[in-house]
C-alpha cells in the first residue's frame, strides 16, 4: 500500500480508502469488522463513513472495530442529510453541525474526527455560518480537518475564498462521484481541486458495480445498486452505448493483463492525476479482497491511455475553444 498527502495538509492517507456505507446492513458486523482489521493490517489507514449510513449504524460498527487502533486510522465521516424527522435536524446550520458532530463522536466512540465532510451543499444556510462552525470545531480539537462532498466547482471555490479571507480552516478534500463511466468532474471540479491543492477521494469508482462486467447489454439487473430505479448508480444512467464501449475496453485490458475488470477500473483511477484515494465499498469478503487486488501494480502507459481515451468527455464548448487558444511556455 502506498501513501499520499491529503490535499493542503500534512496528513498521509493510503491510496485506497475503505468505504463503509453497507456496514451493519447488507454487510454483517462480523464481516465489516474483518474487512476493517484486514485493511489496517495490509497498510490501509483511511476509512470513510457518514452519519446517515444505515441510520448511524455504520459509524457504530466502525467505532467498535477500530477500538484500540484509533491513532492508526484517518477516520472520515459526514454531516448534512436529515438524521431525524425534525425541521432543524438537516442541513449545514451551526445547530445541525454541532448536534451532528456530537452524535457521530458518540457512535464512533472517539473524541475526535480526522476528516469531517459536508455531504452536499446547503442552499439555505449561509456558507459563512457553516465555515465558521467548522473552524470552531477544528480549534476545539473535535475535528482535525474538513472537507466537502458533491459540491459544484463554484461552491468549492467560494468556500475556499471565504476560509482564506477569514483565516478559517479550509477544505483539504473533496469527495465527488468519479469513475471511468462518470467523468463529469473533468470539466471544472478536477482542475479546480488540482489548482487549489484539494485532495480528491472519489466515491463510486466502479460505477456502482457496472465496471465489474457482470451486467450484459439489454439485461437490467435484479439485485445490487444497479437494480435501483433511482440514484446515481441506477441502470437508467449506466445503460448507455458509450458506457458499454468503456466496459468493453476494460474487459479487453483485463484479459490482456490477467487482472479482474474491477481491479483494472480501480487501478486506472488510482493513477489518475489529482486523485488521492478512491473510496471502495464491498458487501462481501470476496468483493473486498478483489478490490484490494487493485494495488501493488500499475497499468502500462498504453493500457491506461486506452481506458482514458475511451472514457473521455466530449470536446464541448467552451472547453474546445479555450484549449484552441491555450498559451504554454
Automatic annotation (TrEMBL):
This is Aldo/keto reductase. The keyword ATP-binding does not apply. It comes from the Bacteria. It comes from Paenibacillus baimaensis. It holds the Pfam family Aldo_ket_red. Residues 15-310 form the NADP-dependent oxidoreductase domain. Keywords: Oxidoreductase. SUPFAM superfamilies: NAD(P)-linked oxidoreductase. InterPro entries: AKR (IPR020471), AKR_Detox_Biosynth (IPR050523), NAD(P)_OxRdtase_dom_sf (IPR036812), NADP_OxRdtase_dom (IPR023210).
